[in-house]
């Protein structure tokens, strides 16, 4: 970093500290001041768009403005400063500059985060969980240090920690302590978070636990074990009382999808102190996996619409890993936006894709990103023009099989091929049924997406930025493969028939 950049970062760090001082007062007028400062300082089109959207929601008192108020008034000051500093100074400014330089070196825009699964050991044994497929003892700390250092050299300052149960890994706190300039979101079952751990998480400031549950007590204990729900509730209470920033994580199945997307469930978790939430629909990965928990096409469509209604009406932000694909231009795997390092060191395209050609023990992250496996993912993305079907193996299993074959990728555990050999026919049929359901129930939304009229896709500056980074936008693909007029004609033909 040159002298000019260092001086700018120094000035911004001073500004962040000043903003944090303002935030601690916790008044709405203070937030107006922060928005005004942000508008004047920001030059990046993507951040300008984000601030503009936030300002609009603030002015109309959108329900989601509960989150910034909670952030100002209830989150511990040290956590607040650390998260703001690391996300703004490190991720949005330092990381962005590094990623642009790396792009010139490797020929494509590098990922913005990665998922690390340092161990697959867990104190629970949940039905359908892929973690049970791995038998590795876990990563040595020196390998994790190598992985994190290489990530920073790519401009990455956000790490998602998964597993197994991350808090079972003996080096977990050391990793957080050694990297105070990063933000770690940790998917955890919550059962190992007691009062002392909650206090340590606040002391560190750079850790955001995302606690997994399956619904209320009956659903959670049925899949995770008797008494687990009560332990989760205790963990949330400890985190909330100590001023930690934490989230929730839900796996939606055909048996709980209505419960976990209900207004009452979201209100319940908001009252418990959760700041945001992640939804994942159950998918059959791992040895001995089954499709019996998967959502039907109708349920997937229901979940998709419910998530949008929750975002519109509730004071908490929720995101859907699969069904929000149209907001991120489809699949984000293969190094396009992220990659995964498993407990054996294998560098996988996605946390749900258990195939690899490179290992962190013998290769660099850059080498893995430029491997035939990762390139094959990026070359085929998006897997469908309709980004509401973004996933390679769930929504485009035939293309997924092709990628694995041409790249000569090897399974990272016994039973990984089941997603192709055992479940492939079922997944392909399910994908076709979901496409049909979308066509029959949601054409108008798709047409708006292609016309750039949806909530995010209409933003001209965002699409300019996407095109600069990735070389194409939704609109480009629409024009190349058939635009909205053609789709509208097909809809009219179907209605007429």
Report on the architecture of this protein.
Keywords: Iron, Iron-sulfur, Metal-binding, S-adenosyl-L-methionine. With 497 residues, the protein is of the alpha/beta class. It folds into 3 domains: 71 residues, no CATH class; 242 residues, Aldolase class I (TIM Barrel, Alpha-Beta Barrel); 56 residues, no CATH class. Helix content is 53%, strand content 9%. A 9-stranded mixed β-sheet has the order 7-6-5-4-3-2-1-8-9. It has a two-stranded antiparallel ribbon with strand order 10-11. Helix 1 packs antiparallel against helix 5 and helix 8 crosses helix 10. The radius of gyration is 22 Å and the shape is globular.
Summed up:
With 497 residues, the protein is an alpha/beta fold.
What topology, given as strand order, has the largest sheet? 7-6-5-4-3-2-1-8-9
* Low-confidence regions: 449-459, 472-497
> What's the pLDDT, averaged over the residues?
86
Q: Estimate the global geometry from the Cα principal axes.
A: globular
Largest sheet: 9 strands, mixed
Q: Give the percentage of residues in beta strands.
A: 5-15%
- Helical segment tally? 23
CATH top level assignment of the largest domain: Alpha Beta
CATH superfamily of the largest domain: Aldolase class I
Number of discrete domains: 3
| Spatial gap, N to C terminus | 64 Å
Helix content: 40-55%
Task: State the secondary-structure class.
Answer: alpha/beta
User: What is the CA-atom radius of gyration, in angstroms?
Assistant: 22 Å
CATH topology title of the largest domain: TIM Barrel
The number of distinct β-strands equals 11
CATH architecture of the largest domain: Alpha-Beta Barrel
